[in-house]
Amino acid sequence: MSAFFSYITNITYYLLFAGVAHRVAPAGKYRKFVTLVTGFVLVIMVIAPLRNFSADFDGLDFFAGVAGLPILQPAFAPGEPGYTALHRAHLSAAFEEQLTIQLRGMLARSDITLHEASFSYTEDFTRITGAWVSVSRAEEPRRVPFIRIEPVRVNREAAAEAHPLASEAKNLIADFYNLPHEHIHVILRYP
Predict the structure, then answer these.
(1) Taking Cα atoms as reference points, which of 75, 53, 51 lies closest to residue 62?
(2) Cβ neighbours around 112 below 10 Å, total
(3) Each residue of 36-94: pLDDT tens digit?
(4) What is the model's pTM?
(5) Residue 47 has what pLDDT?
């Protein structure tokens, strides 16, 4: 903190000196020259600590030291196998996010709400090979049972696949992504 106060004190003294030099200098060309020179010196005085700061600045070390945060540095350099895996994971996450946004918009036009989506695709991200989605009808009310029903074992996947909403969502996704129906898995969800 003392360096900061020293910095402010030096600028204050210099401004007092520049003001006196400006008043003492004769009017005309000399006063303009004194104003120009003192202005340049002031700019250099203000920028000098920033130059020293940028010379000492090394990534996030400064902010980590100030905030008490751990220093975040990449674990791998470009070209290393770990870097390639990390890069692929980022690309995969971005690709799935874009597919989910695209699918959500496409299904919303048919009044279908997309809750979750997961995709399988080729290594080079050129073709989608499968889709797992959780959907519900946008205007469908929440279903609450009024009577007690004894539990029975039901094949929910077969029941879900036969539901009209599931087949509608499957047809839309199959047409949109050019996927076979057996590669699309739909789970019904009630809002």
Answers:
(1) 53
(2) 21
(3) 888 988 888 888 777 655 555 554 444 444 444 455 555 556 666 667 777 788 888 88
(4) 0.47
(5) 84
Report the relative pairing of strands 112-121 and 184-188 from DSSP bridges.
unpaired
Nearest Cα residue to 72 out of 83, 80, 62: 62
CB contact set of 126 (below 8 Å; sequence gap of 6+): none
Task: Output DSSP code: residue 180.
Answer: -
Q: How far apart are CA 166 and CA 27, in angstroms?
A: 88
Among the listed residues 136, 56, 132, the one whose alpha carbon sits nearest the alpha carbon of residue 99: 132
Question: Measured between alpha carbons, how far is 74 from 182 in angstroms, rounded to an integer?
Answer: 41
Cα–Cα distance, 11 to 144 (Å, whole number): 73
What DSSP string runs through 97-162? HHHHHHHHHHHHTTTEEEEEEEEEE-TTSS-EEEEEEEEEETTPPPP--SS--------HHHHHHH
Instruction: Count CB-CB contacts under 10 A for residue 102.
Output: 13
Pseudo-torsion of CA 123, 126, 127, 130, nearest 10°?
50
Under 8 Å between Cβ of 135 and 169: yes
d(Cα 157, Cα 188) in Å, to the nearest integer?
Answer: 9
List, for residues 131-168, the tens digit of each pLDDT value. Answer: 888 888 876 555 555 555 555 554 455 444 557 888 88
